[in-house]
């Protein structure tokens, strides 16, 4: 027996060797070394490198989204940068009075102006918003939902399950393909039911075609019970005034999305939506509408568990200020991706191809993503490289996430910030 077989290198020696390649804390490297020695004592050094590599790749990092899916769920939906500071914020401190304040004051005022609502509050995501509204307004009572809107959205947000957790009872109304206002009226008038509210859910990530019918918010608003519209996508106004001067005509994927301002104008008592879909803000959920209902949500015991932190509120406030200033296209990354012209994208693609000497320019179709405007595309431009290079691109110092279709790799530039084009050039150069 060699001495190597009887004495695997010491854990500390392996950890010190790993330190040359991985800038991870010593304690983490020791953990990797110990795992390797336990698993494969005869081959500990090589296995320790694998374990440390795996650990490094599991850390959160910034990436380049070359997929052309503008709101990529796996990449955190809407990209957003916000200035951070070591200083505290006045999150619950009223500067005017010097007394305790509410964390909702600033965003609530901005949302009230933008959406023409009485009040608004913010929670951690839209699933939490829907849950809180049901718990606050319909606990122990019934909520009417169309059978065509009893949907599952994204990873496990299923309306019947959320309803059950909130303590509200689900009353199914209509059929899968057709639900009319009179179906809701029948449920409301039935002596078996105690309908506290109608919940209208936007079936964000799919479309039923053919012989279909659904009741509008305006029709439901006449039925004498509160109407809550879960619009999901967070489009604040489907006339999109912030696009003026950036795009010739508001595209149909925007005009056809349910929007918060229009749902309220049509008579919804509350709207709920995500902050990180078409709003282009941080992950959060917004509840906006009638002041007494918003207050019932704000004072519900669940609110404490669902409230957002000051970083979220600061980021949301800056996004809402951009909408107010109509500078969304310059300041909100999602809207600048949407409005970048095809000629700009084409010339960026040409520059990348000539600088890297790799691939060819190619017209592409970007997707909105995050279950918003399913099936709609925006013409785009990018780079194609024969073969499947996704792994190598993903392992680049700043990972580049690309798509592969029929053994060609595509990088769509609409979802890439122009300041990151040099990273794409580096990553492509490394393929040769
Ligand atoms: C996306 C979506 C949700 C879930 O929102 P999260 O912010 O992901 O929690 C709920 N309802 C609708 C209609 C949605 O589109």
From TrEMBL:
Note the Gene3D superfamilies from the entry. Answer: 3.90.1150.180, Type I PLP-dependent aspartate aminotransferase-like (Major domain) (3.40.640.10)
Name any Gene Ontology BP term.
selenocysteine incorporation
State if Cytoplasm is listed as a keyword. yes
Q: What are the names of the required cofactors?
A: pyridoxal 5'-phosphate
This protein's GO CC annotations: cytoplasm
Matches recorded under InterPro entries: PyrdxlP-dep_Trfase, PyrdxlP-dep_Trfase_major, SelA-like, SelA_trans
Determine if Cytoplasm is one of this entry's keywords: yes
Task: Could you list this entry's UniProt keywords, alphabetically sorted.
Answer: Cytoplasm, Protein biosynthesis, Pyridoxal phosphate, Selenium, Transferase
Alphabetical list of Pfam families matching this protein: SelA
Signal sequence annotation: none
PANTHER family from the UniProt entry? L-SERYL-TRNA(SEC) SELENIUM TRANSFERASE
Question: This protein is called what?
Answer: Unannotated protein
In which organism is this protein found? freshwater metagenome
